[in-house]
From TrEMBL:
This is Secretin/TonB short N-terminal domain-containing protein. GO terms for cellular component: outer membrane. The keyword Membrane applies. Residues 53-103 form the Secretin/TonB short N-terminal domain. Keywords: Cell outer membrane, Membrane, Transport. Pfam families: STN. It comes from Spirosoma aureum. SMART domains: STN.
Amino acid sequence: MVSLRIYSFLIFFFAATGLRAQSTPPLERLISVDIRNQRIEEALRQISSAGRFEFSYNPAHVDKNALVTVRLTNVPVRQVLNQVFANTLTYKARGNHIILLRAEQTDSTPKNLLLDGYILDETTGERIGQASIFEKTTLASTVSNPFGYYRIKLPTDLPMIRLDVRKQAYVGETVTVRGKFTHTINVRLKPLPQNIPVQAQALPIRVTEDTTRSTTPLGLAAVSVELPAVQADTMPRQETLSILDRGRVGVMKLLVSAQQTIHDINMNRDTLYRDWQISFLPYIGTNHRLSGRIINRFSVNVLAGYSFGVQAFEVGGLLNLVGGDVHGFQAAGWGNLVGRQVNGVQVGGLFNVNGGDVSGLQAAGTFNVNLKQVQAVQLGGLFNMNLKQAQGVQVGGLFNFTLGEQPGVAQIGGLMNIAGNKIKGLQLAGLVNYAHGDLRGWQISGIVNRARTITGGHQIGLINIADSAGNIPIGLLSHVQKGGYRRIEVSSDEVNLFNIAYRTGVRQFYNILSAGTSFERVGSPRLSAGYGLGTAFNLSKRTMLSLEGTAHHLFYFQGKDTGWNQQIRFSTLIETRFSKNLSLAFGPSINWYFTDNETSKPIRQPAISLYDNRASDFGRTYNWGWIGFQVGLRFGNSNS
């Protein structure tokens, strides 16, 4: 039984080992060989046996009598073949076969050379995938495959060939290539110390020399530069991205190639410069796959383009994608998506979205969205949205929204303006203005204005709401929470035995809503509803004078309700305070009543008649005039 279990385990172990070998491409399988002065056919047999694959080749391309000596431990099959054939053959993997092909014949002075090899971890020796390998002059670049292998083609006419290698969490490596011929260079990268963050800027780059010679296409000798010590408490912290910022980054990644995204991550400490570039798509252009790390002075994108920055001028048929800053002029048929600052003029047929500060002019057919401070003129066909401080002018067809402070801005929205913090300037909207913080300036809307403290200007709208106001709100209904004028009054006059009224606004200018009844007395109106305006003046510490004008509609709920039954009242009232929240108000009033029904005047209490049943010069309107009197109790804070 024990022997059976051991036998089953061995079968499972070797089967799993074989499956892992089969899942790794033949050229990338790690093998160990010890071939000493063997003929080439025997050497290939031992290599294929160690790697669990088969060779396919034309015997005419291989010298059968050549003797081979190779002693290597735990290296990729590709590296073993490089040493066996010294770059006289090339190799391709097909399934579980390696095909040996004769290398292309080149002139004595070839125009290009091929460099290949592996990117390795200097500490562990493990192969590093998705590392960026590039040459700054030609902008040629590639990315190591999942097994750390790379291959790059470079021209031989370069005065000096320097190969740069970058990988996130590793010290950058720059290799000076001495031999201008096709050969192999293995590059070892040093991991960053744990006390230095990946995002740290200005880290040194290790400079190494390619010691390869034409007869020995092997690795390199590295001369390293030690990193300075960095205290943990001095490490810069990575800023947490907002939802909109993550969305902007996601859209940019969606439009660029996977290799460009890898370069952006690995080369976050490298910036390249070019005077100009032309792109057809983000990954097809003169900046090649390194476009995300290149700053251009002039940029032309036929459909869409991607770069790290623009310093003077950029136009795009559809989209401009910039990971860094834009200075100058930028225009696109659809829109502009910029990761950081914009300084100049930005025009998008549909939209502009920016992750950094903006200054200058922004214009878009539908919307402008900025995630940081704005000091600009913003013109949005539908809306403008800013998540931090804004200064300048905002014009939106529907609305303007700013979450931060607005120390000097004019917001003009077809429907609404929203300021999430303090604002200094003007809010003008067709429907609603909202300021979550203090307003130093004006709010003008068709319906509602809302702010915390109003100074230096006024609120003008149907409804005005403020926590406190240093100036007078003007509208159909105004409410000021602190320091405002608010009174509930119960009163009686010559028309209604009982009236209730609400006064709201500020003492200098307030609104009046009222209703009254005569308790169904015969010939009297059964109900009245009124609206008016008033102002009040302090006569002494306990006494106030109010001047009010109100208009009332009288409901008889009889035949007289078929037309106009209007009363206009002008009142002069004295308010005397009994306690903090109770006052007595009384005084005379001048009244004018008109209706299209010839009937008696509606008063039932003593009054002084001015004229009776006077017919107007036009239509069938009849008028009455009299001097009345009103007395009532007011409830509310008399100190306001």
